[in-house]
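Now for my pick.
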Amino acid sequence: MHSLATAAPVPTTLAQVDREKIYQWINELSSPETRENALLELSKKRESVPDLAPMLWHSFGTIAALLQEIVNIYPSINPPTLTAHQSNRVCNALALLQCVASHPETRSAFLAAHIPLFLYPFLHTVSKTRPFEYLRLTSLGVIETGFHHVGQADLELPTSSDLPASASQSAGITGALVKTDEQEVINFLLTTEIIPLCLRIMESGSELSKTVATFILQKILLDDTGLAYICQTYERFSHVAMILGKMVLQLSKEPSARLLKHVVRCYLRLSDNPRAREALRQCLPDQLKDTTFAQVLKDDTTTKRWLAQLVKNLQEGQVTDPRGIPLPPQ
């Protein structure tokens, strides 16, 4: 058991934070009577306390209390009766788990304990009410922060005044996270059902949830093991390609530059696999070949470069007739 009395020296950046209050709130998580306020206060302070994750993980009964918060709302998922109050409360618990998932000292133990699996029932939900949307977004955020700090170059999400602080932070909107060992996270995720869950959200979630889910798929694809896994069978590849194709069609009607960026990056990475490249020559949406998204991407040089590289990858090695028209594969 971690002794709070022997905590590491406090950085000067924490001068404003009353450490005794942090210890008190952690202790209060163990009692159902004081837990709700403690969840709220700790979730608000978590970015101010760099060593909060080890304190949470090693203090007696804390993780069990957070998991109890999650399990307590399972009955409200089906039938979908989740209230805004319930959603906000469990999102505060998820925000603390996200803190544990992103910290280098606790991440491996967090994965080894298979704690993300407790969140998967939330990702299975389909209700489009705000309480459920916050729940899915925050749950995705816990998984997404297992990868690394979310900066402008990767996942671009604006702060939303409509989201509770915990949902915003866990989605990586305001969080500041350190880089993690991505291979460990990928290996764990590939043993779970995260890919079909992300694909479901990519197809029917809100624009914000779609963006985070697509980012998770993108991170899996960028790993060689993840790319090989998805391209290993026709069923896996075709499911991913079908959902990405539907998203492109939807984006042509309701443009979103940040979501399109991740979709294009997923396609580009798929084109690195020879079998997937051959299939994409037949099924890449026409909207990515013509000028459909020219206006949306006019200021996004990175995505335009990715799109040009994607088209080039699909053209290389392709057999054409004397007129330059591609011939169907033999």
Q: What stands out?
A: The first helix runs from residue 19 to 28. The chain is about 60% helix and 0% strand. Confidence is low (pLDDT under 50) at residues 149-153, 157-162, 168-180, 320-324. The two ends are 64 Å apart (CA to CA).
